[in-house]
User: Fold these one by one.
Assistant:
Number 1:
Amino acid sequence: MKKNQQLFRKACAAMHNAYAPYSNFRVGAAIWADDGNIYVGCNAENISYPCGTCAEAGAIAAMVAGGAKRIERILIVSDGESLITPCGACLQRIKEFSDDNTEIVLSDGEQNFTVFRIFDLLPQAFQEF
Ligand code: THU
């Protein structure tokens, strides 16, 4: 099975477990990490809204906990109508563990994939000059 298909399946499984009673918008993320493993996350909302966490943040935390260092590819899927791009904070999180080749794959529910690099989505990321 192709990498994007594998990530899609894992991201969808995570998305179905999302806890999103406030937005009713489920998101799943799956990372292909440099250790060859797949790490997943979903959004986990909170009655105190700002405490909620994004799917990408969960997947990155799982990757770090698992001992991997870099994101080779991350796929994001939601139960909305179309593709979603990661929020600004998650782009900064992805950047921390990415390089120029890291693929950010956006998917709809029909496995239509659109691929970006971090520079496309966060060209002027925070850094010290
Ligand atoms: N959400 C994510 O999980 N990832 C994103 O990149 C954007 C938004 C979640 C946060 C919230 O639980 C719901 O989607 C609606 O914004």
Note: Residues 3-16 form the longest helix (14 residues).
Number 2:
Amino acid sequence: MKDRSTTRARLRLALAPLLATCAAAATMVAMAPSASAGTTLGASAAEKGRYFGAAIAAGRMSDSQYMNILNAEFNSVTAENEMKWASTEPQQNVFSYGSADRIVNHALSRGMSVRGHTLLWHAQQPGWAQGMSGSALRNAAINHVTKVATYYRGKIHSWDVVNEAFADGGSGGRRDSNLQRTGNDWIEAAFRAARAADPGAKLCYNDYNTDGINAKSTGIYNMVRDFKSRGVPIDCVGFQSHLGTTFPGDYQANLQRFADLGVDVQITELDVMKGSNQANVFASVTRACLAVSRCTGITVWGIRDSDSWRGSDDALLWDRSGNKKQAYHSTLEALNAGGGTPPPTTTPPPPTTTPPPSGGGCTASVTLNSWSGGFVANVKVTAGSAAINGWTVRVALPGGTAVTGTWSAQASGASGTVNFRNVDYNGQVGAGASTEFGFQGTGVGPSAAPTCTVG
Ligand code: G3I
């Protein structure tokens, strides 16, 4: 858990060099007004193909003023604490969803989407996990991801699969934590487990102090680029945006460079230090999101100033009496004025007019990430001297091993000898080219070389 004053000091420090470029950014993101007439944050965002959400606390759901604002203004919800590891798995393998369910069920019954926050984080771990390390912790973490994402399968728009895994400061590297000490591949193992458990949810990496182009955001950028190049299932990056009194001049450019990697971007925990620039910063963030076509939504981290983790910063859109602040009005105006750059819906790959020739064979090789009791296998399928149109990889699993999830292929079974067949989008492989799929399982990973056949 982060100490609030330290966090704020870090925020100010991180934002200081960006002051000089603020004026330029304000010009850069200004957009021509359109005829939008949204009268609430959610309705106006929806007109732009986006959501506008709030983090809420189950403990405040009996407060009618709070709930009235939520129901009237927002079309997305995040549980502020109730889906964190300590809340959902207080004892190992004993799950507790009561508070989280109250939030999720309320949201879904009103047609709001839900951001899941968060599957793995170094903070707010249950005591039993804090005391674990090595393969026992890795197993427990992957089990947690699998169980929680499975429980909520079909109900979550986007999961923060991993939260705040990068270090502050100039290293651009990972933060030290018990999870990090299980091996650098813990993040990709978590994303693979989440994909297997809920293939319909967008899978996000989420962090703070990443709201401009700096060493930390660049470290994350490099990770996302690497994940995309290796087929690790990541769909989105969350920018928490706990902001100070100034708007980072390269905020929009930072969102755009991530979007250009082929992931959605989301503003996930927006709140802004009080002061004369507060309304302007909220509006600037809103304009930046609208200007990036893959920025799919904004979430504010609470409703009224009195609901905020930032205490006396008065960092939200409603005051302590539940009145709309200037920051609310400027945010709504920015939403209404935004030009239409709706996020694209996923488009299928273009059809090929000339099917590639069959024949020439294929080969497959497996890379294993193993720990005691479990493994993740990545399989590379390579076409021979001719292009192929469909492949099947046969993998012999040791006795007692079971496949618990597969991505980018269809498995014929879960144990013994398993055939993994291509899915729609990765059957065609050019001569000498490769594609990848993967699976995870319990027990020991395969040791015998897999075989690949065409078709
Ligand atoms: O629920 C207990 C209550 O029973 C107890 O009496 C009380 C005593 O302190 O504590 C209550 O738990 C608190 C919990 O919030 C619920 O109010 C925790 O102490 C407190 O540490 C916890 O703070 C949360 C913080 O994450 C934990 O790090 C904040 O509400 C929450 O806004 C904040 O959210 C994080 C995001 O998850 C990740 N990004 C940063 C953001 C702000 O720190």
Note: Residues 134-151 form the longest helix (18 residues).
